[in-house]
Amino acid sequence: MHKSHIRADKFFYRAYLFLQYFYRLASKRPSEKFSDGLRYGKYQYNIRNNMPATDTRTPVEVVAGILTNTRGEYLLSSRPEGKPYAGYWEFAGGKTEAGETPFAALQREFAEELGITITRALPWLVKTHSYEHARVRLRFFRIPADGWTGSIQAREGQSWAWQQPGAFTVSPMLPANGPLLKALSVPTALTGRLKNGFHGANGAGAYRAVPLSRATPDDQNLLLTQAEYRTRRHNLPPAASLWLAVENAHEAEQAQETADVIVWRVTDGQTAQNVSAVLQNGVSVPLVVSATPALAAQYAAAWTEAGAQAVAGGESDTGH
């Protein structure tokens, strides 16, 4: 890739971050995906997620792993010289080769880049991102501390660092991976329910998502129902992230264009199976399942294996 293209992509990425920041200050509302676009070359970009609306190129299939150690830290590595975005930090991975399953590609890439063996990985998010040189579909996997063996080696001359969730210090981050930092700050263990909100912790400390009706100016993660979002989306208080409640597959699909986190309330077996089906197809933002205690006990393991961010078992059958 020509260096001028790399410089152009870097410039545009910084410019869209500035516009995003300015828009949020002006609107004083949580982050949400905007329909407004900017044109760069032959592509129409969405301001918030940097996605060209008219990019029809066939996506390159790519896998990436969120490697975890016993301290709950995540591994990031820098892209080596000679590759696009050299020096940018990312989660390790690479292209899926013909005939490979995503998991096999993940195993091969981590062996080639870092000299370790991946034995277990959980599907997480699926995102499509457009660069000047390619359009890629990224399948992210979470690799638990007991899901890999070996000693990390910089086999491509790259740098690497362990980072605390919610307190990342390395930069610059590869554009496609930047939004993952916010997603990774969402705990994988949560308690609570939609009526009262959810509580957990990450590497930066306590974490909570609070219903809009109970939020204070200090609350950074707002939890809204569909009705609240429809009536209040243009005058919401400033916040770091928007959690949006859903009750069916259609709402879950639509919420991925709006929310930073989806919360799906589950009180019956059919809905539980619908959650599993949506997770199997892949989601682009973290999905938290808020189920009754019985359904959480029955389905939590399957939901987690399919890619759920967290399962909370505090819902009642009646919603009270």
UniProtKB/TrEMBL annotation:
Nudix hydrolase domain residues: 58-188
Domain of life: Bacteria
Any one Gene Ontology molecular-function term assigned to this protein's record: 8-oxo-dGDP phosphatase activity
EC number: 3.6.1.55
Cofactor(s) required, per the database record: Mg(2+)
Keyword Zinc carried by entry: no
Protein name: 8-oxo-dGTP diphosphatase
Family: Belongs to the Nudix hydrolase family.
Keyword DNA repair carried by entry: yes
